[in-house]
Amino acid sequence: MATDPLRAAFKTELATIATAAGIPWAIKEVENVFASADGATSFLALEFDGSPPFEQRTWGAPGSNLYREEGNVWVRVVAPIGSGADASGYARSIAAAFTQRRLATLINGRLIRTLAGAPSHSRLGGRWIESVPVSYRVDNLA
Fold first, then answer.
1. Collapsing DSSP states into helix, strand and coil, what is residue 58?
2. Domains, in order of start, for the chain
């Protein structure tokens, strides 16, 4: 599961990407965002999937351990159907920005590397949702 510093780093980076792409929507990271959000509002949502256990990497002096954290984040671009919002265009911009990106925010001095896939779309309760899969990897000091 993504650590709190990692969640904060993704929210900060998504805000930077959204500003650069001209996306004026709020960023949400809440449990059950679709049930609690106003159906007439467009927004971006971060959804963190579970991740495998951290993998220990050891080299050099004893105690100099790194723990690799890997996982997936879904960036949801959500707009009411018929609102005229360019959710698909925004999703493509976000996917392009997260592809092979090194997040500006560091965790314990370590870079967060990302790789994004192509967006996919779905409908839920009168909303058009573009989903951008983003994989990440960061090596944390023990």
1. strand
2. 4-53+66-141 (3.30.2000.20)
Give the chain's residues under pLDDT 70.
1-3, 29-38, 50-65, 104-109, 140-142
pTM, two decimals, is 0.82
Q: Tell me the one-letter amino acid at 79.
A: A
Task: Look up residue 81 and give its two tokens.
Answer: 């159907």
Q: Cα(126)–Cα(115) distance, rounded to whole angstroms?
A: 30
Q: Cβ(58)–Cβ(49) under 8 Å?
A: no
Query: Token pair 């960061």 is at which residue?
Result: 138
Query: 3-class SS at 36?
Result: helix
User: Any idea what DSSP says for residue 37?
Assistant: S
Token pair for residue 4? 């709190």
What CA–CA distance (Å, rounded) separates 67 from 54?
6
Q: What share of the chain is helix, strand, coil (3-state, %, to 5)?
A: 25, 40, 35
